[in-house]
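Complex record, two chains
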Amino acid sequence: MYDFKELHEAGSVAEALRLTKEHPGALILAGGSDILIKLREGKLAGCELISIFGIDELRGICLEEDGTILIRPLTSFTAVSTHPVIRQHIPVLGEAVDQIGGPQIRNIGTIGGNICNGVTSADSASTLKAYDAMLEITSAEGTRVLPFAEFNLGPGKVDLRAGELLTGIRIPKESWERTYGHYIKYAMRRAMDIATLGCSVNVRLSADKKKIERLRMAFGVAAPIPVRAHTAESTAEGQPIDEALLTRISEAVIADITPRSSWRASKEFRLHLAKEIALRAVKAAVEKAGGSING
Amino acid sequence: MANKLITCTINGKKKEYFVDVRSSLMEMLRGSAGLDSVKHGCDVGECGACTVLIDGLPYNSCIYLAIWAEGKTILTLEGLSDVKGAISDIQQAFIDEGAVQCGFCTPGFIMSSIPIITSEHPYGREEIRKQIAGNLCRCTGYVKIVDAIEKTQKKRIRERQES
């Protein structure tokens, strides 16, 4: 038995919103791969839960008319990584979430739960950040749209107010079109492990594939929350692709991140890792885009 | 605490259970349904010993609420035997290849291997390892487990081609 006090099941978004109003202290339970484990650890005894697991309208992925990719938050990691829209347009997101846990965890874990937990190690977060994802947040009063860039307020804290529910994750076409992405997760094991550091990049090359037109880069576990690497990005803008540029990008990363020491790794090791995996990820993304280093 | 009536299909048969809403699916399967192949391991989704298939996909039943099983189709190791109770080819392959030592992890591994051996895609050894990465075995060192899955997968592909 899990030792929660009460569980309320929502069958629709409307019902979930009503329940959050009636039970203001209740936690939202999506796939449960974080909350149910915390309960087992004796950290949430006596809590109230609102299960949204049964709300099928919050599952699925589609391409909207204007080319925006819409991911509903209850979509499992497995469903994200195998979905044709993701595979065709932003395969890096599928590759990132395919590195979470093991198959069983990827079947139950949801992309919305991953970002609403607000942890810096969330494998989907850096890619969503690097693609300027927009969040659709619904409450009884209506819907607000928030850039994912502004969602993380601190470790484990996100901008979800009482009575609000994440109902959609959107990636605008302007952000994903003509981009090629690469995600590197550095962890001690190749499965069932939390990232020591993660880096997601995507590039858009010039028509002749000689220059980086636009670079987007974001890190997990390089700061208390998932962060964009704006300095590194602007270093690359419009620059011809060569080894020297890769080094400059990798050096610039240091200005964007504030890793700390933890039992997984020291701050110094994380700084070293960040430079190295940023360089490797940019290189891989450039190669996927059909460009090459040194002409 | 509230109880709830749950109707689902377990190993091909329609079942109803009146469960405490705080139960995990593992507790319902072991307790109410008496299916002891569903092992009570770590309780936190790390070891995979409680793996069952829900609508064809592997899940850790220890971190799945019993009430979420409403309307679902669940397969446990017990459901792999034929009507006479004879074990399936994948179970026999685990025995033949020496993939079982203490045996505690075996049902979970076998359930995780079902999507592999029923797939049209021929999985390589690395792909098999990725598919069983959510299951832990502290005895075998995994090589013989991968052998058993690979062998059964090849046998099934051969059988499908012949038929």
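Note: Chain B has five helices and five strands.
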